[in-house]
Structure prediction request, 297 residues.
Amino acid sequence: MFTTDAVDANDVASVVTSTGDAVAVSSVALEIEALYREFGEAIYRVARSVVRDASLAEDIVQDTLLKAWQHRDDWRGDAPLRHWILRIAHNTAVSVLRKRREELRDPDVLAASSSDSGGPDVERRVAGSMAVDELWKVLDGLDPTTRAIVVLREVEGLAYEEIGDVLGLALPTVKTRLFRARRALSEQMEGWR
Amino acid sequence: MMARRATDVQLLQWLDAEPERLERYIDKFPAEADRVDDLTSLAPEVTSGLSEAVRPPDDLAERVRAMFTPDPLARETAEVLYDLMGLAWRTTRALFSDDEGRQQ
Prediction:
């Protein structure tokens, strides 16, 4: 598991546990808990779309929540809090992905992680898991930012302008990337209907 | 002189082979993006498959909470306090906010 550059998450935890009273708990853990309840699952979905790996996505949720809490004063209110947090999640996920790719180019790391493809986990919880695996194969063919666009639009239901705001992309770029991704998904999943 | 409207076939050809051209086109005629939107809309089965593909594990909340509040007693206290605060927050939002629907 990676740790944040700014502060180790355990520092926050130790603040909570060492004081031993409920006031301290509410001042830190509750704020993060509130962020999680509001945005945690969306953060996971964006992270998962970028890095594909479930375990890494979970780490990114924790890292994003911690960063958002630490930098909460940076949010100016000129954009919705949701966009600000999803931007942190996306940037964190891209950074993790980049770091992971660099690590995998290192022969020592490559040997140690040869059994871990970095792709989606094999555990599926519902019938139709083969179709979801097929879907992941199509998603794998898209670049990470396009996967994020697809998820932000088709799963999170964001408007094109909102996606542009979250990802820092121009509106026409968001649209054409999404439309092309949809074409690929529809063509490859034709037999799924 | 009015520009000629691209056909559906042209739009899809540009999308597949000349995305930059399509970008310029919908940048110039923003309403045309709605046509491409319709032409490329996903089947409901694919959309629900996407949701399933990125669905968080059921115990994610529990694990995230444990990460930030590892002491069980503190975690229990945090949950109770959060629920109390959350009730007040939801009540206030329901009474005074008219934009909740727009955020969805």
